Backbone:
């Protein structure tokens, strides 16, 4: 078998296997609201060792960019719109985040806990 | 297990392919809408016989939530030692999957380059893979490249790039990088970091020192890139 054929086959298997498992799983959904350039709740607790979906609703009339090096996520949320981020599976701990446009007021943390939130 | 087996097969396969100098930027699949950037890339390669210098100056803009465009001016030092503008390049990067939604994140990059003085072209299609593993990230790029034109022979090439990065602190994220080509397999340390200025304004930098390991003889490449995002 030629190398090019092997690469195509390997890449296809990798792509397919990477997409399949998570589609079937049920992902828990959590919500954050941005209002007056403040995230609410400022502390969000999510379960450890599982992937979750966080929907961030921006009720302000300006855009904001959710940014977290700890969570390895960066996402723009337009004014009056919602955006979804997927985080985890994560080990227990405290993960900081902030809004890039209003870093003094738009701050919060995600607590990853083994106890069910 | 199947996922990791197929990734290992992909890496092994690619180490035996590709052509020429492949040390360059390792692309990540993520796009942030409304982000604009100026970029400068520098690459210096030293062998026993020659010293190749290439630089790229680019401007990029993410108009959409999952697509970014970038245009580059490419400069290279020629055989007489003069450094001059040698080519233009257009690049589109597409974030195919939402970050973290699936087992791994996927993107694609499309590039077309035209040499300035002659009608020689190079078109590339690349698949971008990134997998978060705790506080580390594994990123892989696989390119299929087609070259054609007035003064070059038409040919297909493949290139492979891999980066395994430890997200230590925003300003300093060390990595191991691997680049592969037909006559070139290089490995070495890499570093990247982000310095925030204000709002969306930030400076991203990355560097790598890659040593060729497939053939005997000296072949070291230093790569450096700096981006101003705003």
Residues:
């Amino acid at each position: 078998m030629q190398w090019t054929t092997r690469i195509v086959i390997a890449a296809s298997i990798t792509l397919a296997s990477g997409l399949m498992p998570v589609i079937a799983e049920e992902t828990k959904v959590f919500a954050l609201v941005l209002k007056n350039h403040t995230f609410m709740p400022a502390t969000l607790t999510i379960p450890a060792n599982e992937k979750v979906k966080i929907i961030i609703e921006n009720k302000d009339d300006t855009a904001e960019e959710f940014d977290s090096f700890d969570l390895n996520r960066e996402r723009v949320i337009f004014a009056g719109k919602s955006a979804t981020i997927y985080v985890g599976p994560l080990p227990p701990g405290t993960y900081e985040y902030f809004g890039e446009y209003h870093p003094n007021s738009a701050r919060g943390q995600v607590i990853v806990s083994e106890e069910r939130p | 297990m199947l996922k990791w087996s197929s990734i290992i097969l992909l890496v092994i396969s690619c180490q035996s392919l590709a052509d020429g100098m492949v040390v360059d930027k390792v692309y990540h699949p993520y796009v942030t809408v409304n982000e604009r950037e100026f970029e400068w890339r520098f690459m210096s390669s030293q062998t026993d016989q020659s010293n190749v210098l290439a630089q790229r100056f680019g401007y990029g803009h993410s108009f959409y939530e999952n697509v970014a465009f970038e245009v580059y001016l490419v400069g290279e030092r020629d055989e007489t030692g003069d450094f001059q503008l040698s080519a233009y390049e257009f690049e589109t990067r597409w974030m195919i999957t939402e970050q973290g939604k699936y087992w791994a994140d996927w993107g694609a990059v499309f590039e077309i380059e035209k040499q300035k003085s002659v009608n020689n072209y190079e078109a590339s299609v690349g698949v971008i893979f990134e997998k978060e593993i705790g506080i580390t990230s594994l990123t892989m790029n696989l390119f299929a490249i087609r070259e054609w034109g007035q003064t070059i022979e038409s040919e297909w090439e493949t290139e492979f790039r891999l980066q395994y990065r430890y997200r230590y602190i925003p300003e300093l994220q060390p990595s191991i990088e691997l680049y592969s080509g037909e006559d070139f397999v290089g490995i070495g340390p890499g570093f990247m970091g982000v310095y925030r200025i204000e709002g969306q304004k930030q400076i991203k930098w990355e560097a790598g020192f890659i040593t060729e390991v497939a053939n005997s003889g000296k072949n070291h490449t230093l790569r450096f890139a700096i981006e101003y995002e705003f």
Observations:
- Chain B has a mean pLDDT of 87.
- The domain at 2-229 of chain B is CATH 2.40.160.40 (Porin).
- The radius of gyration of chain B is 17 Å.
- Chain B touches chain A at residues 2-3, 6-7, 9-10, 13-14, 16-17, 30, 32-34, 65, 97-104, 106, 127, 129, 132, 134, 137, 142, 158, 167, 169-170, 199-200 (CB under 8 Å).
